[in-house]
Description:
The chain is of the alpha/beta class. It is 40% helix and 16% strand. It contains 14 helices and 14 strands. It has a six-stranded parallel β-sheet, sandwiched between helices. A hairpin with a 5-residue loop joins strand 11 and strand 12. Helix 3 (92-105) crosses helix 4 (119-131), helix 6 runs parallel beside helix 10 (288-305) and helix 12 packs across helix 14. The protein starts with a strand and ends in a 41-residue tail after the last strand.
Amino acid sequence: MSDLVATVQETKSGFRVDGYEKISYDFTFLDGVFKPENPQLAECYKKWGRVLAVTDLNVYNVYGEQIEKYFEHHELELKVHKTKIGEKAKTIPTLLSIVDSMTEFGIYRKEPVLVVGGGLVTDVAGFACAAYRRNTNFIRVPTTVIGLIDASVSIKVAVNYGNYKNRLGAYHAPMHTFLDFTFLRTLPTAQIRNGFAELIKISTCSHLDTFNLLDKYCEQLIQTGFGRIDGAPREVREAADKINREGIHEMLKLETPNLHEIGLDRVIAYGHTWSPMHELVPETPLRHGHAISIDMAYSATLANNLKLISDHEHRRILDLFSRAGLSMDHPQFNEEILDKGTAAILKTRDGMLRAAVPNPIGSCTFINNISNSQLNEALRRHKQLMKMYPRNGEGLEAYVDASDTGYTENNKQEVLALETAAEEAGSLNGNGYIHGGTVPNGDMKGVNCVKEQTSDGCAKGFTNGINGFTNGTKA
């Protein structure tokens, strides 16, 4: 929800308007959000006496009966719009199908749509709400690790347009987000692993305590659905709850000063510099978590080459990815793909690489001043290191399947789009160096590492945010 405070002043040539919008939205941890004895969600709809829910088809197949009984118990009329959104269907036609349901339902301007599913569903349905009468409320119930930990934190909503990811979108905060980790009881292990990567992302660059817990309980967290399956050790459940709460809190602290992404140096963009190419290059796409894991593992090797992390820290990061069964390399990750990915991201980040890397574990630096030869050297070394790991660094169940709701085959047009973007941005080879500054440990540093301070000493928080690749998976 938001409130706008604005003033109008007369000037010599006309008028000047200054407006300041307050954005407020809540997160509630609630196990069993659809259990009849938990009225919190139903209370959000008592005023309206009815609910329009947009949900992922896979989620509905598992939880549809429970959802229907929940609202029946609370005497709320329910209409369900079931969708199956993969990356290929994250489009305007899919958005319009949701809009059609909103129109047929006769949604009121302030009446919230209920959105239940993973990041793709909340992206498209959220954008439909942002566009419908320019501002229709919605409530989120994420159902995957990526949805709970990553996508639920952002206020960004979007669809793909033509060959471009998230080209049309908005910043539209939900009224409320209910975080129910019991959904992980029915989430496939492959999807648990997929989301585990997002926790490695945030902890490696911003929260050492969480990284330590992930390192300690890695295999148990994945095998027990973050301690949610029957018989899971209490110790693991308690560790999982702490990881999830602190991970979300840390993401929010980094995200909220930069909700509208005015700052392009984003701590939680670790793993999102070259990962778009990893998702699209293989004939069958890599899952989002595996794609960013390859990026993070390579970035860790790059950071180690630059003496930003020690050999021990470097090996600790790689070992954690390996133990989790996450990908650290792919046969098609070569210097050509590295070059294309670099050129494409330079355009996205206004001509600077802004590659987030740990320095040390638990804090972050942004790499800018680096040559193509240094990037290629790090890749060659990374490939050699991968020979020491199972499967040469390739992950377990790394490729999308039916549990990814439609995102099951390569979209050739998206590959072409990235290649076009890379060509337009200019090949890195021949440019020599990518110029800019670094931002270690939260202090803003500018071009050529010259420190640029704000009036209060440092630009705390204002360079942080979320990359926006919420195209993960759904239950």
